Amino acid sequence: MRTYLVTGGAGFIGSNYIQYMFRKYGKDIRIINVDVLTYAGNLENLKAVEDYDNYTFVRADICDSDAIRKIFKENDIDRVVHFAAESHVDRSILNPEVFVKTNVLGTLVMLNAAKEAWELPDGTYKENKRFLHVSTDEVYGSLEEDGTYFYETTPIDPHSPYSASKASSDMLVKAYIDTYKFPANITNCSNNYGPYQFPEKLIPLIINNALQGKKLPVYGDGKNVRDWLYVDDHAKAIDMVQESGRLGERYNIGGHNEKQNIEIINIILETLIEMLPDSDPRKANVSKDLITYVTDRKGHDRRYAIAPDKIKAEIGWYPETMFEEGIKKTIKWYFENEDWMKNVTSMEYQKYYDDMYKNR
User: Fold this and answer.
1) How far apart are CA 246 and CA 184, in angstroms?
2) Dihedrals phi, psi of 251, to nearest 5 degrees
3) In what order do the strands lie in the sheet with 191-193?
4) Can you tell me the distance from the alpha carbon of 153 to that of 307, in angstroms, rounded to the nearest whole number?
5) pLDDT tens-digit profile, the chain (360 residues)
């Protein structure tokens, strides 16, 4: 039985990945989920698997070297999938130190623990061990509106404390690959969306606010462009890279769903109106009049767009979910999980939301 150590598995992408892997492999794998459970980590995301015999949750901080080394000593880890990170750009602008600590130091701790557990006396590694570092397209900076794309060879040029911390962690993984021949890969993905996403991110924020008749905050002119990737497509890509990717390589994972933020908001509103029955009182709340332009984010990158040519050519992965299909699946999930949304939008989230948008 292959054993996976997943960091940040109670978060949005991590929890979707864990559920995807159990759907695919069932009892043929074992997953150990390590998460410190910050505001964005939520064990409700994993209720479907929490009683599985081959699933274990460990509450620990990836910056805690002793805790992480203990997990490696007590388990024969075959795969590490490193999701754990502070990930919201606005929060990084408010508090860069937390991002550097978690994203850079935490990654270093994970690398050292895996290297110590897997390295043989001659400097090679135990057979069939692999480490995958999950990163973002934001490390590449911003594209002009001229149809160019991010490739694996695009120079690293981060603009926010968040993207700088992720770029730093990418460079650490690359250094371990180059210096120690460490068996790792790096993936850089575009914006994910889907079930269980914390509503500080655009799509769940708009869905939640629109259903309640609240203002829909739009940064700047709303024409910043992002490439959107349905989270299950990302989970599939990660699994394929771990099993078929060339060790030491970086792979870009993109959705071929480039859209302006204002376009995303309009699609969500139109889809909500289409999907809500006339008898649902929330339908009366949904209106484009809720769109409210607010002061732009500091250092806001204009456009991201990934070319996933390499992963398609070498591994055979391609995004299967176009945005119009994915957004309907996402909205349907939020319709069916109102209690989940109510739970995560209470208390600390509300304070953060007020701080970010109330006076803009």
Assistant:
1) 9
2) -130, 125
3) 191-193, 225-230, 258-260
4) 11
5) 999 999 999 999 999 999 999 999 999 999 999 999 887 888 999 999 999 999 999 999 999 999 999 999 999 999 999 999 998 788 899 899 999 999 999 999 999 999 999 999 999 999 999 999 999 999 999 998 777 899 999 999 999 999 999 999 999 999 999 999 999 999 999 999 999 998 888 999 999 999 999 999 999 999 999 999 999 999 999 999 999 999 999 999 999 889 999 999 999 999 999 999 999 999 999 999 999 999 888 878 889 899 999 999 999 999 999 999 999 999 999 999 988 888 888 756 566 657 765 666
| Cα–Cα distance list, 211 to 104, 207, 260, 272, 281 (Å) | 38, 6, 21, 8, 9
Global pTM reads 0.93
Under 8 Å CB-to-CB from 42, ≥6 apart: which residues?
10, 11, 15, 196, 198, 343, 344
How far apart are alpha carbons 349 and 351 in whole angstroms?
5
Q: How many CB atoms lie within 10 A of CB 351?
A: 9
- Which phi and psi angles does 135 have, rounded to 5°? -130, -165
Q: What is the C-alpha to C-alpha distance for residues 325 and 34, in angstroms, rounded to an integer?
A: 32
CA nearest 62: which of 113, 21, 11, 16? 113
Q: Is residue 171 classed as helix, strand or coil in its secondary structure?
A: helix
Max CA separation in the chain (angstroms): 70
Structure tokens at 238: 């990660």
> Residue 341 contacts by C-beta under 8 Å, 6 or more apart in sequence?
199, 204, 208, 334
Q: Quote the tokens at residue 309.
A: 């040519």
* Dihedrals phi, psi of 228, to nearest 5 degrees: -105, 135
C-alpha 142/C-alpha 260 separation (Å) is 14
- For the record, the structure tokens of 286 come out as 């949904």
Question: What are the backbone dihedrals phi and psi of residue 267, each rounded to the nearest 5 degrees, phi first?
Answer: -65, -45
Residues classed as catalytic: 137-138, 162
Residue 153: count of CB within 10 angstroms of its CB:
8
Distance (Å, whole) CA 231 – CA 246? 23
DSSP 8-state symbol, 104:
I
189 and 225 Cβ atoms separated by less than 8 Å: no
